[in-house]
Structure formats: C-alpha cells, structure tokens
Amino acid sequence: MLGSVLPFSPDLADRVSEYCEKHSKELPESLERHWEWTIRTWMDAEMMSSKLQGQWMIWMSQWMAPKRVLEVGTFTGFSALAWYEGTRATNAEIITLDVRGEVLNFTRKMFKELGVDDRIRVIEGPAASTLEHAEGQFDLIFLDADKHNYQLYMNRILERRLLSPHGVVFVDNVFARGLTMGNEFNPYIEKIRRPFWEANGETLRKLNKSFLDDPRIDTLILPLFDGVTQIKWKAGYLERQEAGAAKQ
C-alpha cells in the first residue's frame, strides 16, 4: 500500500476504532469509568481524547519513560490520567495547565479522590503566562488546548528550552476534523460546529507550515486520531546554540 490513510466512511471509521480498542492493551478500569463519566456529564465532551488515544498515550509514555510531563489543556483530566498510568515506572511529575474554572474544579476533586494528586499538579491560568515562568525541562509535552494559541505556546516552549534534549512534543488535533487540508475534507460536521472547525483548520494550516519551516525543530505529522504532530529538536541545534553562547 503506497498511501498512508485508508478511505473509511464515518461508520466504518468508528468500527475500526472499536476494533483497535479491543485488540490493544485495555484501559485501566478507572480510566474507562472516567471516560464514560465525561461523556455523560459534559456537553462539550468531544474535547476529550478517544479511548484509543488514551491507550496510545499510556503505551507511548511507558516506552518513552519520561521523568517530567507537561500538558497544556486539562479538560476533565482523561489524558493526565493516561500519562499517570503510563509513567508509573518512572514516577514522573505531571504538570497540567488549563483555564476552565468549573470543569477544572471537578477535575481537581477527581484527581484527589483517585489518589493521583501525588504526581499530577494542576496549574490554573493562561498557559502562555504559565509557560513563561515554568522551570526545568520536560521529556514529554502534550499540546491539546486553544488552537489559535498553539504557535505562541510552542514558541514559549522552544525559546525557554522547556523541551529536554531528547524530549518530544505531541501536538493534538492538527487536522481540525479534517478541515486543515480543506473545507471539503469533512462534510459530516454539524452545521452549528462547522464555523469553529473551519477557523481552526485555517489556523492549523498555517501552523503546520510554520513548524515545517522552523530551523530549530524536526516535525512529523501522523494521521492518528484528529492528526498528531510529533516535534523534536533538530539534530545539532542545541549544541550549536551552546557553542555560540560560549564564544560570546
């Protein structure tokens, strides 16, 4: 197969996702319950990652073995719980940022009830400001927040060297439900939601190009979920920066 994406209809795509979930290491029961609770409780539950993406998060963080994780965008905490589960071996510190007051209050309470607040720290407030004052480096960074600020967040991360030398940034939703590639790519979006995703598609189209042109990083966009971009430091970039600073 020379292509990278199979041409599934929405119904078949759901069935494929279900097949993948059932044939992958299952989610812990606590995450399964939390996912179902979010679906029942919050009208904007579509902001949450899928079950399969949660399984992917656990697998990736187990493989990467990060010691520090930074997440921009908390919502109800499903992804933070997945990072927690995947970093049991490294006992990683997980810092998650969000501004959503009502949802975040529930999330904090839930973290405490589940006993995961020993390693998950929630910081409430504008992410750009929090990133400006963040300390140390992170081995895994996950961006899943307001798309129009992704560029700002990424610049903060790179300028302040928050990404460790061998770390990876995962940028979520870079396909904007398919509309990043063009408005014709998804005729199934609800009419009331379409303007929102069309605007995000335009923003992310520019963002993906800017990532590709950035001399500091290497990027790889994968057709996973709603599009995931993986970002790492370009080979030799940090060393050249340090050598230049030493000559001054």
UniProtKB/TrEMBL annotation:
Keywords tagged on the record: Methyltransferase, S-adenosyl-L-methionine, Transferase
Entry's family note: Belongs to the class I-like SAM-binding methyltransferase superfamily. Cation-dependent O-methyltransferase family.
Protein name: O-methyltransferase
UniProt xrefs under InterPro entries: Cation-dep_OMT (IPR050362), SAM-dependent_MTases_sf (IPR029063), SAM_O-MeTrfase (IPR002935)
Pfam families: Methyltransf_3
Annotated TM spans: none
Domain of life: Eukaryota
Species assigned in the record: Lepraria finkii
